[in-house]
Design brief:
Blueprint: E1 21-22, E2 25-26, H1 27-35, E3 45-50, H2 54-64, E4 69-74, H3 81-87, E5 96-99, E6 103-105, E7 119-125, E8 133-137, E9 143-148, E10 157-165, H4 168-180, H5 191-200, E11 205-209, E12 213-215, H6 219-234, E13 247-248, E14 252-254, E15 259-261, E16 264-265, E17 269-271, E18 276-278, E19 281-283, E20 285-287, E21 292-294, E22 297-299, E23 302-303, E24 308-310
Parallel strand pairs: 3-4, 7-11, 13-16, 14-17, 15-18, 16-19, 17-20, 18-21, 19-22, 20-23, 21-24
Antiparallel strand pairs: 1-2, 5-10, 6-12, 7-10, 8-9
Helix pairs in contact: 4-5
Amino acid sequence: MAGLGTRLRPHTWSRPKQLISVAGKAVFDHVLDTLRSLPDPEHIELINIVGYLGDQIEAYIREHYPQLKAHYVVQENPRGQSHAIHLAREYLDGPMLMVFADTLIETDLSFLAQETAEAVVWVKPVPDPRRFGVAQIGEDGLVQRMIEKPQSMDLNLAVVGFYYFQDSRQLLSAIDEQMERDLQLKGEFFLVDAVNILLERGLRMRAEKVDVWLDAGTPEALLETNQYLLDNGHSNCDETDCHSGSVVIPPVFIHPTAEVSRAIIGPHVSVGAGCVVRSSIIRNSILEDEAEVEGAILEGSLIGRRAQIHRRTSMINAGDQTVVTL
């Protein structure tokens, strides 16, 4: 979680992108929901690689997940995924999961209790693999090698940023070799190169396919993820009490503490805690906690915490053939 989240500016000027809300919960919450299917979810250790605004991640975990044992490692100079894991080496021993915390997948992790492979990489078939890292699978069903941004369309199993390693010390040893060999791209040490070193050493890694792979790294992707989650179990329309002549078009999530009056909300809208929405039409948007919207028509919008959107009546003097868009 050490990235700057530049693609989600201006929201990430004031907080890490993992704490931005989608479908009524922080992105980070959705990631931890996936980990609940682990064989022993209450006794995992979280090793959080943080950077800019990382103190907010620590405060959030302390408040919302006090039962979890958590460590924090600061990556001041983002030099890639392998470098991040290298910094966390003092906390690594035994089996580990490596998770990109702005990527959401649907998978059941309970199978890890009986997993016989030494490593697992989660993948999803994609129509155009050329902008992803992909896994090449051999006739025995095991991963032969990892390829970053392949030129060929034949290998279409895109790596979704979720890995399991039975022995984290083996991975650390491969990362050491990666750094000694200076295997990097544009100043960053990518995990793919460390995995390939392990495969060269004979690592038995298999691929686990997923059907759902969601991104939370851009405004457009965040809204698409919000839409999918609301369509698939995260809507609370049945629990929502609409006040003062409002209309709700499902699916939506409206926090119980939000005040909605004389508004049309939905579809695919998330309204956070303490929000105030009056005399507005909102669809396909996310309103963060304590945002206030009055007299506005919003679509495809992200409204940050405690932001205020007010529209006042305007006077327009438009001449012939003038086009005015409000």
